[in-house]
Amino acid sequence: MAHIQRFDHVGITVADLDAVTAFFVKLGLEVEGRTFVEGEFLDTVCGIPDSRTEIVMLRPPGGGAGLELASFVRPDHKPGSPDAMANELGLRNVSFEVDDLQSAVDGLAADGYGLVGGIGQYENSWRMAYVRGPEGIIVSLAERIG
């Protein structure tokens, strides 16, 4: 049995690659690369014959686990549930630690991205909020306070 060596990335399929990339860059991620992928490799891995996708790989400053954004050129993407709440099955949020939660929330609000609920505090350790970003992606932002 193979054993996990490290956590590498989370992948999200999106319709508007530029808009979603800009959202995550504004949060502080850096673009590691952008490319098209097609051919036998992609067809085999994703199980979709004759597929083609454009991918942007983002990573936090200094490295670490990444965020892969993929937009299918063919076949067309299938719509998801942009209003999904935390109790809907499936991947529900991508989480980042930030140094100033209120500033991050305010900056995203200025671009039209609002809170799913409110800003909560867990004991004297963390402040956290869910922001609904482009295409309904929920981003969990957490600030260590203790």
The fraction of residues assigned to DSSP E strands is 35-45%
Major β-sheet annotation: 4 strands, mixed
Identify low-pLDDT runs. Answer: none
As a percent range, the share of helical residues equals 10-25%
Termini separation comes to 40 Å
Number of strands: 8
By secondary-structure content and strand pairing, the structural class works out as: alpha/beta
Name the strands of the widest sheet in spatial order: 1-4-3-2
Query: How many helical elements?
Result: 3
SSE series: EHEHEEEHEEE
The average pLDDT value, as a whole number, equals: 92
The value of Rg in angstroms is: 17 Å
Secondary structure elements and pairings:
Blueprint (H helix, E strand, L loop, with lengths): L8 E5 L3 H11 L2 E9 L1 H7 L5 E8 L6 E9 L19 E4 L3 H10 L9 E3 L3 E7 L5 E7 L2
Parallel strand pairs: 1-4, 5-8
Antiparallel strand pairs: 2-3, 3-4, 6-7, 7-8
